[in-house]
Structure formats: structure tokens, C-alpha cells
Amino acid sequence: MQADRTKQEPGAGGEASRVVVITGASSGIARAAALLFAQEGCALVLAARDATALDHVAEDCRGRGARALAVPTDMSDEAAVKALASAAVEAFGRIDVWVNCAAVLMYGRAATQPMAEFRQVIDTNLFGYVHGTQAALRAFKAQGGWGCLINVASMLSLFGDPYLSAYVTSKFAVRGYTQCVRQEMRAYRGIHVCTILPTAIDTPIYQKGANRMGRQIRSIAPLYAVERAARAITTAARRPRAEIIVGTYGYLIALGLRISPRLVEWMVALLAPKIQFSRRRQAASRGNLFESTGPNQVNGGWRAFWLRRLWRR
User: Fold this and answer.
1) pTM for this one?
2) 10-312 topology per CATH
């Protein structure tokens, strides 16, 4: 239906002409990526569950000279994701780039974590990406067989992390699923499928995570500035690559997994719990699994937290 307006390749009218859909845009990596795309003059379609936070992001993007449309969307709802894609095409005529970045986090013991909460992590982190991927591919094919799909996975799609089994399961699945999609899209020279693999990033996801451990959650360390992951996304949109690791530490882990995967597994099992939980007690919480909660800023403040601890020591 929009074929007459989309015969060109993505960006053929210049980088500023790109239409970018970003999910999970209310905070963290996706919000930072939205601001970078806005600075490039892209037209943005922003999706997240929190309508108020999403409106703030849209205003920030417009303040940088971009056109921005906020579409409150629960990515676990297939119909809502289809409506998101339709809204993007209706508003801007096409979709050049689709970024799947909506994710939730849950800490809990594998043997005892509530199944409803485990399923919610999978519904959001995996099926949300499946819904987004299918919507993006339908749009790409309808506009002549071009577009760039970017799925933000994690370095935790390569190795496990104790007490994060739901999240790790979802990210392993996202990486495998995206590989399958990339293989299938070989028939379309203009459709690119990319996976971003961030190491620990300074976002508010840790504050918003569900917690069944009885101890206060902290970020893992070392961790990188959120803008570094955002730049990987905008780079992939301009120069698509199959997989992009974010952070030098990620490359070291990838090398370690090639040399001795069991050693990496042992080290993570030993060190991760000591880093990611404080001694302070905390009541069980469902975090933002079933309803959106703050904070919704770009940064989580964790780099400053760890620097203060290091300075005191």
C-alpha cells in the first residue's frame, strides 16, 4: 500500500530520512539510542509500556530536531506490536530500522522462582522480540524487501549467570532466534539482521528488576556507559553487521569462552554473586515485570556507585 513511497533503499534520501522504531525506549540503552538517532535527524517511533515516560523521551527527541511519535506498547502483546508497526507506517510511510530493546530482569533461584514471573521474563524478552521481528519483516517485505532489524541481546547470551536464569534463558534464545532470522533473510539482499551483545551497561534495569533473593541488588561490574551501547545500535543501522560486542571486557569473555568455557563458567559462578548482591536485606519484589515502574532515565548511576566504593577502599 505504501510501495510508491518506498522504492528507495533505506537512507537513500539521506541519513536524516530514516524512520526508526525503538522498543523499550522509556529508559536505558533504548532511550539513549533514541536520542542519538534524533541527533541524526531520523524520524522516530518510540514504544514502551509507560506512556508518561515515553512522552518525555519523545519531547527530548523533538528538542533535538527529530520528528517523534510515542506509541505506548506492551511488547508481550502481539496485537499491540502489530498496531505499533501500523502506526509507524501510517505516520511516516515506511520503516527503515527496527530496534528491539525492551527487556525485564529477575533475580531468583532456579529451583524456587515463581513460574508466573519466569514466564513474564520470557514473554517480554523473547516473545516481545519475536513479535517485533515479525512486524518489522512484514513491513520490510511490503516496502520492496529492505530494512534493518537490530535485536539487542547480551553477552549473557553466551554464558550463564547464577540467579539470573530467566534473563539468561531469554537472551540465549534471542541470539539463536536472530541467527535463524538472519539465515532466512539471505534471500533478501536489502534486509539486514543484526545482534548487539552488550556487556554490563550502566542502566536502571537493576533498580527495576524483580528480586527473590532476599538481598539488595547491585549491578555487575565492570560496566560501561550506556552511550557506548547506544552507539553500537546507531552504527549497526548505518553499517549492518551480524553481531556487535559492546565493551572490551566482552571481547575478553568471548576469547575466554573459546579457550576454556568451563573456566569462565567457574569464575562467573564464584564472583558474580559477590558483586551483584549487597549484604543489605530486601523484601521480595516483582519489580517492573507486570507493570512499568521507574526510574526511567538513561543512566542507572552504577558507574558512580562503584567508583565511590573503590575510592573509599
Assistant:
1) 0.93
2) Rossmann fold (3.40.50)
